[in-house]
Write a structure and sequence with these properties.
The protein is α/β, with parallel strands linked by helices and 272 residues long. It contains seven helices and eight strands; from the N terminus they run βαββαβαβββαβααα. Helices cover 33% and strands 19% of the residues. Helix 4 packs parallel to helix 5, helix 5 packs antiparallel against helix 6 and helix 5 packs across helix 7. The longest helix has 17 residues.
């Protein structure tokens, strides 16, 4: 029998599904670090054997999860977490010892912060604020990606959950679960801050950067705009629909209509 591992200071919460997903996790070459553990929540896994790799890693726990939706999967991870600090993760990221220990140091050195937003490097070439800043008011052009997020579970962050009406697997709002997560944190009065620290690398494009996206993406984007800009959402949606039309070459009226539908439903919903 191996001796028990000491309680972790940081847990990395990795959501995945199906056989290719768990294989991607096994290929992530997750750093073995004192005080750092990994929890994998694995959906759509019936009848699929767990890769033998995980039997050699005492710091990685794979838990099978049988409910649909990426937000439900992430919430399962938050329920399983026990460390004072966590990072939200996907199954195709690259972490280094310096990136994980650096993020942990920032979180431990800012105990009055509930919600930490970092940055990532990757093909999206996403832009960020140049300096550390509060997210009580969102910086111009700022949007959240889930795997940039860390939480202080020893504070109110332990109560924060993803809205399961948003994200892949949801019927109407099929994206923006990460931005609604931040919206929920801000609405609930959590202390949210951005730190200009690169926590990981994402090799490919995220959904929002792809040329062709489904209608549920536009509805979700409209919801985020309306919730964060209740007085000016109509004008902002028109402007964003025009920008999306120029970038993606979809029909302008169709984009605007989908975004407006998402905005109206979000503003009148009792589950947001």
């Amino acid at each position: 029998m191996y001796p028990a591992l000491p309680p972790p200071r940081l847990q990395v919460l990795i959501a995945t599904h199906r056989a290719p997903g768990i294989e991607r996790v096994a290929a992530m070459a997750l750093p073995e670090l004192e005080g750092v553990q990994y929890i994998v929540s694995w959906q759509d896994c019936d009848g699929i054997p767990e890769p033998e790799y995980f039997s050699r890693r005492r710091d990685i726990s794979v838990r099978r999860f049988y409910h649909p939706g990426v937000s439900a999967n992430r919430n399962n991870l938050l329920e399983l977490a026990t460390a004072p600090f966590v990072l939200i993760a996907d199954d195709d990221l690259v972490y280094t010892p310096d990136s994980l220990l650096g993020a942990l140091a920032i979180m431990e050195n800012n105990p009055d912060t509930d919600y930490f937003s970092f940055r990532y490097s990757g093909a999206d070439n996403k832009t960020y604020p140049e300096a550390e800043t509060s997210l009580a008011t969102l910086p111009k052009g700022f949007y959240q990606t889930a795997f940039e997020v860390g939480l202080n579970r020893s504070r109110l962050g332990r109560e924060l959950r993803f809205n399961e009406y948003f994200g892949p697997g949801a019927p109407f709002f099929t994206a923006a679960e990460d931005e609604i997560f931040l919206y929920t944190a801000r609405r609930n009065g959590l202390v949210c801050r951005y730190f200009p620290f690169t926590v990981c690398t994402h090799p490919g494009l995220t959904t929002g950067s792809r040329t062709i996206v489904p209608d549920g993406f536009y509805r979700s984007h409209g919801a985020v705009i309306a919730l964060n800009n209740r007085r000016t959402w109509r004008l902002r949606i028109a402007l964003n629909a025009w920008r999306s039309w120029r970038h993606r070459r979809a029909m302008l009226f169709h984009i605007w209509r989908q975004m407006r539908q998402g905005a109206v439903r979000a503003l009148h919903a009792d589950y947001i």
